[in-house]
Structures are given as structure tokens and as C-alpha cells.
Specification:
alpha/beta; six-stranded parallel beta sheet; five-stranded mixed beta sheet; 13 helices
């Protein structure tokens, strides 16, 4: 079984997003993937961190509870590093049941936890994991990114840990990934840094941050009436519509999820005509379990061929929004 340890190189690297993105990418390739964040990121005792919350919601599986920061501080104060690693291994083994690959999320260096880098190195070494470094691009020069890579490489390389590569997150503007990776490699001063591969370069895009219509449907436990492009369309804004059509025309724009009742035939017609005109709406969501009359559905059926997702929930419009 292969294990990847995702280690952030600094603040705001988006390590949780990258970690879960790697899990999804590996699963889409046909592998069975486990996930664990062994140590929580400065959360109070008993509180669920974002990593565990999103992992449970996305993958519908048991995700081990992280070692709390309070417990960690107590063990560090007592010099019980071996016990910390035992607890890390316990959580790892719980998540690694019947999987092909494990993805382990590391700690973000922060003032409250000056031991983060050392703990990341210990976890990667004990888990015999390949390290994937993650950095927030933040308009840095290749030389600055190379300096970060060299510094992090030296932390892990002293234990003979191998590197799978690195990922750059939130890149502004136009870029060429191959050129960017080469420029960073040329600026690195360590051999390991120069040999490190750029595995992914992720643009800073509002579209990537927006949930898919399918995510909304899953969250609301809504029934899908028409799938369309539900897995690819993104919800940039949610609009509850109760007014007449003339007052909502400006709201029918790309990425809009229209929330209304199924007995509002005027709204249904407006959405259908908007879809037929080529506007990629995120979808239409009917509330209170009310769907349009079958005759209205037949009249608007050509709009469904555009990929328009249609879903319905039993909740009212207020609770849905």
C-alpha cells in the first residue's frame, strides 16, 4: 500500500483542499483511497476539524477523529513523542483498512504550534510516506518558491524520506505549468529540490471554489428529476424567486441556481427559455416537494437537452436557502 503525506509549506496553502482533491483524483483512477488527518489544527477538544468534516461528507465513510491540539500540547510538554506517534499510527491504521492508497494531511506551521514542521517529518518517516509539498503561489517569484522548497526538502531529506513532488495553489493570472516548474527547478539550490516535480498548478478561480449542483443536491438530500450536467455545473449564486418574471430577468445568469416552487409556471418558463438561449444556469431547484404539471414539463423538455439540472427538495424555500 502506498502512502502520501501532504505537507503545507506555509500559511493559506489550501492543504485541506489539495489533500481531498488528491483523494478524489486517485479514486477516479479506480483506486480505493483512505484519508486521515492524524493531528488536529488547533481545534478545541471534541470539535471536528474542517478536514474530517469535508472528508466524511464527500466520501461517506468513517474518518478517524484527529488527536486534539490540547492533547498534543500535553504530550509534547511531557516529552512523549513516542506516544504521539503511537496515536498517529493508531488513526492511520484505522483509516487504512481495505484501501490501496492512503492520503495523510499534515500540519500547517503556526505560532500556536511551533512543532508542526518537526511533527510532519516524524509522521512522514514513521508512515514511510512519500511527501507532497503544497504552497500558496501568492504571486511569488520562482526564486522565492524555490527557497521554500529547498527549506522544506532539507527538513524531510535528513531522514531519507522520498518526495513525490509539489503542488502550487491559487495561481493568479495566465501561466504555463511546464515553464513555471522549470523556472522553479532551476532556482532551487538543493539536488532534491531541483529534482522535485510540479505535480499540479491550480489557478485562483472562483469557479473552482463554487460547489457543483450535485454537491447542493447531496447536501439537501434532494431528488434529482433531471441529471443534465449536474456534476459539472457550478453554483456561483443561489436565487430564491417569488416575484414576477419581469423583476427576475437580471438574475437569470450563468451559474445561478434558481430556487422556486414548482407551481410557478411563469418562472419555469423563464428558466427554460433562458437555458434555450444558451445561458448555462446551475439548475432549477423546486421546494416543498412541489414539481410542475406534466404538461408544463413536456412543454419545457427541449430546455433539458441543454444540460439543465432539475432537482426537488421537501424543504420550504426559506430553509432551503
Amino acid at each position: 500500500m502506498q502512502t502520501f503525506f501532504i505537507s503545507p509549506m506555509g500559511y493559506f496553502s489550501g492543504v485541506t483542499t489539495i489533500s481531498l482533491g488528491i483523494v478524489t483524483a486517485l479514486e477516479q483512477s479506480g483506486l480505493k483511497v483512505g484519508f486521515v488527518k492524524p493531528i488536529a489544527q488547533s481545534y478545541p477538544e471534541g470539535k471536528v476539524g474542517r478536514s474530517n468534516h469535508f472528508a466524511r461528507a464527500l466520501y461517506q465513510r468513517n474518518i478517524p477523529k484527529s488527536l486534539s491540539s490540547q492533547r498534543l500540547e500535553t504530550l509534547i510538554g511531557q516529552g512523549e513523542y513516542d506516544l504521539i506517534m503511537e496515536e498517529v499510527m493508531q488513526r492511520y491504521q484505522e483509516a487504512a483498512q481495505d484501501v490501496d492508497v492512503m492520503v495523510v494531511e499534515g500540519l500547517v506551521p503556526e505560532e500556536k504550534n511551533p512543532f508542526a514542521a518537526d511533527l510532519n517529518e516524524k509522521m512522514a518517516r514513521n508512515l514511510q510516506a512519500g511527501v507532497i509539498l503544497v504552497s500558496n503561489y501568492n504571486q511569488q517569484q520562482p526564486s522565492q518558491l524555490a527557497e521554500q522548497i529547498d527549506m522544506n526538502v532539507q527538513v524531510f531529506a535528513r531522514s531519507g524520506i522520498w518526495f513525490a513532488g509539489y503542488v502550487l495553489n491559487r495561481i493568479e493570472g495566465e501561466f504555463e505549468a511546464d515553464t513555471l516548474g522549470k523556472n522553479i527547478s532551476d532556482a532551487c539550490k538543493t539536488v532534491d529540490g531541483k529534482n522535485l516535480s510540479l505535480l499540479g498548478a491550480i489557478p485562483n478561480s472562483a469557479m473552482l471554489l463554487a460547489p457543483r449542483t450535485s454537491d447542493i443536491a447531496t447536501f439537501l438530500n434532494a431528488k434529482i428529476l433531471h441529471t443534465g450536467q449536474i456534476n459539472s455545473r457550478r453554483v456561483l449564486n443561489k436565487t430564491v424567486i417569488g416575484r414576477s418574471v419581469l423583476h427576475i430577468l437580471a438574475l437569470l445568469k450563468p451559474g445561478s441556481l434558481i430556487i422556486t416552487s414548482g407551481d410557478r409556471e411563469d418562472i419555469v418558463m423563464a428558466v427554460a427559455l433562458t437555458a434555450l438561449s444558451g445561458v448555462p444556469l446551475a439548475g432549477i431547484l423546486f421546494t416543498s416537494g412541489c414539481i410542475p404539471d406534466e404538461r408544463m414539463i413536456e412543454l419545457c423538455r427541449p430546455a433539458l437537452s441543454t444540460g439543465l439540472p432539475v432537482i426537488v427538495t421537501d424543504m420550504n424555500s426559506y430553509d432551503t436557502a
